[in-house]
Structure formats: structure tokens, C-alpha cells
Design goal:
Blueprint lengths: L2 H6 L1 E8 L3 H10 L11 E7 L6 E7 L5 E12 L3 E5 L2 E2 L3 E2 L4 E10 L2 E10 L2 H9 L2 H17 L8
Antiparallel strand pairs: 1-9, 2-3, 3-4, 4-5, 5-8, 6-7, 8-9
Helix pairs in contact: 2-4
């Protein structure tokens, strides 16, 4: 996929977080169960092997108890700066039905971090489906939950 096609089928959110890239990255990687799903959804299972080709498995749970598993692999992991993950493969590079590639960046900005979550889809239809699923609202909420934890605000502990 070229950058031009990626931009054509891309959804993203960005947020300035009042914490260092190292702090945001640490919360992102070590405490994902606390922020990964928009409340009142939860993420009771996270199985991540943070290396290229490593497993990227999460299971979100809806308030009614419905489990939503998502499995993929990490493509790139640059500590404190960038994580790229896709659901195009299961571990062992076993192809599966692909929906997206997600690129998470942690860029220094002033005394904080410019956090960006960018999702590239294989088709316009997949992008529109993701948008209709509530991408902007849901991913915006989780970026806020990540920020609460990284900034040490008490709202994060109220979940």
C-alpha cells in the first residue's frame, strides 16, 4: 500500500498528553487493560509480545458480557516512539482476513507528548465500516483514558 492509498483509507486521532513520551509509552504498553477499551467496556485479556512478528491479542468485553477478540501481530516496535500492528496475520505470519494496520506514535512536543493513533484500511468500505462503528468517538475516549493515566489524574482510578 502506498502512502497515498493509506491516506485515502485512513482514520486518525491525536492528542497532546502532559507527560513524557517515555511515560505515555510505558502506560500504553504496561497498563493497556486500564485504558484500551472505552468505558464501560473492559479489556480483560491482553497478550502482547512487543517485537516485530510478536502476538498482538486483545479481548474487549461489552457491558452485556459479549467478548470481542482481536488478534494480529506487531510489525514495528520502536520503544517510546512508535508501534505498528496489523490484523492481517496471526503469529507465525499466518494470513487471516485483514481489516487494518494501526500506527501509534509518541512524539515529543513541548513538555508533553503528541500521541497519534492512525489506522489504515485496505479499502474504502473497511474504512467507512470502522468510522460507522464509532472510530472517532471510541478511539478519542481511549486516548483520553490513556492521558488520564499518563498524567496521573484521579479519573483513571474511578473506572
Amino acid at each position: 500500500m502506498t502512502d497515498q492509498n493509506g491516506a485515502a483509507h485512513e482514520l486518525s486521532i491525536t492528542r497532546l498528553i502532559a507527560a513524557s513520551p517515555e511515560a505515555v509509552y510505558t502506560i500504553w504498553t504496561e497498563r493497556a487493560g486500564e485504558w484500551w477499551a472505552p468505558r464501560p467496556y473492559t479489556t480483560p485479556v491482553i497478550d502482547w509480545d512487543l517485537r516485530p512478528g510478536g502476538r498482538a491479542y486483545t479481548m474487549m468485553r461489552s457491558p452485556d458480557g459479549t467478548d470481542m477478540p482481536h488478534e494480529g501481530v506487531f510489525l514495528e516496535v520502536v520503544p517510546h516512539r512508535r508501534i505498528v500492528v496489523t490484523d492481517a496475520f496471526r503469529p507465525g505470519w499466518i494470513p487471516q482476513n485483514a481489516f487494518m494496520v494501526a500506527v501509534f506514535t509518541f512524539e515529543p512536543e513541548g513538555s508533553g507528548t503528541r500521541y497519534t493513533a492512525c489506522v489504515r484500511h485496505w479499502s474504502e468500505e473497511a474504512m467507512k465500516q470502522h468510522e460507522q462503528m464509532g472510530f472517532h468517538q471510541g478511539w478519542g475516549i481511549v486516548a483520553g483514558q490513556l492521558a488520564e493515566l499518563a498524567e496521573g489524574r484521579s479519573e483513571a482510578s474511578a473506572a
